[in-house]
Amino acid sequence: MEKKNWKRGAGLPPIGFAVMAVLSGCGGEDATVAEETCSRLDTCNYLLGSVAECVEEIDRDLDDLTSTERADVETDLNRCLGFSNCDRLVECIDDI
Predict the structure, then answer these.
(1) What single string gives the DSSP state of each residue in 34-57?
(2) Most exposed: 28, 51, 91, 94, by fewest CB within 10 Å?
(3) Taking the model in full, what pTM does it have?
(4) What is the dihedral of CA 2, 7, 10, 16, to 10 degrees?
């Protein structure tokens, strides 16, 4: 899978990336890994566009994967979200 340049000021994150703060009031539904990733990246000031645009891009990229590939990427993204430090989060996502 092709990596995209998503670092601060360079656009939206690629699939290679998931916090609930933005989504906590949304009807009690669980946030998707894309929503969590984009919200967290926004909190860390790593998005150039909006959270919604980021979610759309990640969802499009995820839709292009097989179910096994998608599960693997979502697992990796959830692992990255475990980092509280923004730099560690971004480094982890960049390695996916």
Answers:
(1) HHHHHHHHHHTT--SS-HHHHHHH
(2) 28
(3) 0.69
(4) 30
Choice among 18-22, 36-40, 45-49 with the minimum mean pLDDT? 18-22
Kindly state the tokens that stand for 19. 């916090």
pLDDT band at 30 (very low <50, low <70, confident <90, very high): confident
25: pLDDT strictly greater than 90:
no
CB 48 within 8 A of CB 12: yes
Contact yes or no for 56/19 (Cβ under 8 A): no
Domain boundaries along the sequence of the chain: 20-89
Q: Got the DSSP string for the chain?
A: ------STTS----S----HHHHTTSTTPPPPHHHHHHHHHHHTT--SS-HHHHHHHHHHHHHTS-HHHHHHHHHHHHHHTT--SHHHHHHHHHT-
